[in-house]
Amino acid sequence: MRPFSYQRATDAAVAVQALGAASVENDPLTQATAQPLAGGTTLIDLMKLDVMRPSTVVDINPLAQDWSAVELGGDGLKLGALAKMSDVAANPEIQRSYPVIANSLKLAASAQLRNMATLGGNVMQRTRCSYFRDVSYENCNKRNPGAGCAAMDGVNRMHAVLGTSDQCIATYPGDFAQALIALDATVEITGRSGTRTMPFAELHKAPGNSPQIETTLRSGELISAFAIPGRWPRSVYLKARDRQSYEFALSSAAIALDVQDGTIRDARIALGGVATVPWRAREAEALLKGQKFDDGLATRVAEASFQDAKGRGHNSFKIALGKRVVAHALQQAAMMEI
Ligand SMILES: Cc1cc2nc3c(=O)[nH]c(=O)nc-3n(C[C@H](O)[C@H](O)[C@H](O)COP(=O)(O)OP(=O)(O)OC[C@H]3O[C@@H](n4cnc5c(N)ncnc54)[C@H](O)[C@@H]3O)c2cc1C
Ligand code: SF4
């Protein structure tokens, strides 16, 4: 591990000042010389692996008093970025009104990790592509822009089939982000000039020609909260993985339905484990609206969810698996007793 300096932020202004002062404009994830430290369950791993090399680590945990609230109001839910995954997953109100959120968190990582890890750190986690995480491989466009991609024709069983480019096929690994994108969440961002809010769907960037740029966060900015409009009691998060615990998704689906008198008024579908970014399947959603649910409809929607998918060999099985996950998740959501 390389030497770095440690700074403990006493408040948000100090944190963004410290981060901004040491960071390179518009490329905070890959070129930043300062990184925020929340639970540390990903950042410290990547520093030990020499993948991330911050010269300064800014500990934002002292902000938890202001940034870890869970507020459920008439118009929706607000979650502080420093709330722990385990606390949010165990919240009975969230389990009742947003089961997709509670389960996306409960099915992630392990109990010990969830006790440490924060919501903000979770959405900012980086890909588990083994070539990215092993610096002995030079050819990783995400780590070394222009160096090529070892996964393209290499071992790519865990890689993405949606949102890929000829530069990078790394999967976005998190679970919670699928729940957020399905429910039209917004993200509150705190920077040197105050706070701004944007749709969560605009936070992550597909790899395109610059896989090293992963988010739209600007230099020195921090995620301070997430807001979810409305309530979604008829929602599920279904995750298929190699083992039932402590494992990333091979394929997952976040589904939310609004059903009135047997007719689907609104439908949301987001896919995980199969795409380079948290993935909203809007064309598939459109097939559900105004319909009565049956198994044939679930199959058509599952097909539509993966109509643009492209496998690269080892990962091609994810297309068939993903369709089954979507169809099952839809059935579960449709059959929920609300
Ligand atoms: C073995 C293992 C299995 C796992 N399995 C899963 C899984 O199945 N599903 C899943 O979703 N996750 C999984 N994870 C990932 C885990 O959930 C993340 O490590 C955790 O959520 C990160 O949160 P943290 O608070 O520890 O982040 P940190 O490690 O502190 O930070 C992570 C990154 O986010 C940045 N950051 C942190 N907070 C903020 C903020 N507020 N604003 C802007 N940037 C910020 C940091 O600088 C860093 O770059 C697994 C991790 C491990 C080690
Ligand atoms: S898939 Fe992306 S992260 Fe993995 S080796 Fe290729 S460029 Fe690097």
What's the quick description here?
The protein is α+β, with helices and mostly antiparallel strands.
Summary keywords:
binds iron/sulfur cluster; 20% strand; alpha+beta; globular; 338 residues; five-stranded antiparallel beta sheet; four-stranded antiparallel beta sheet; single chain; binds flavin-adenine dinucleotide; 12 strands
Could you explain the architecture of this structure?
Strand 6 (186-191) and strand 7 form a beta hairpin. The protein has 14 helices and twelve strands. It has 338 residues and is an alpha+beta fold. The protein has helices at 12-22, 28-31, 43-48, 64-67, 85-89, 92-97, 99-106, 111-116, 119-123, 130-133, 176-182, 282-288, 295-305, 317-335, and strands at 5-8, 34-37, 56-59, 70-73, 76-80, 186-191, 194-199, 222-229, 235-240, 251-260, 263-272, 279-280. Mean pLDDT is 95; it is low at 24-30.
Q: Topology, please?
A:
Layout: E1 5-8, H1 12-22, H2 28-31, E2 34-37, H3 43-48, E3 56-59, H4 64-67, E4 70-73, E5 76-80, H5 85-89, H6 92-97, H7 99-106, H8 111-116, H9 119-123, H10 130-133, H11 176-182, E6 186-191, E7 194-199, E8 222-229, E9 235-240, E10 251-260, E11 263-272, E12 279-280, H12 282-288, H13 295-305, H14 317-335
Parallel strand pairs: 1-3, 2-3
Antiparallel strand pairs: 4-5, 5-8, 6-7, 6-8, 9-10, 10-11, 11-12
Helix pairs in contact: 7-11, 12-13, 13-14
The structure holds flavin-adenine dinucleotide and iron/sulfur cluster.
Residues 35-43, 45, 81, 108-109, 113, 116-118, 120-122, 124-125, 174-176, 222-223, 246-248 line the site of flavin-adenine dinucleotide (FAD).
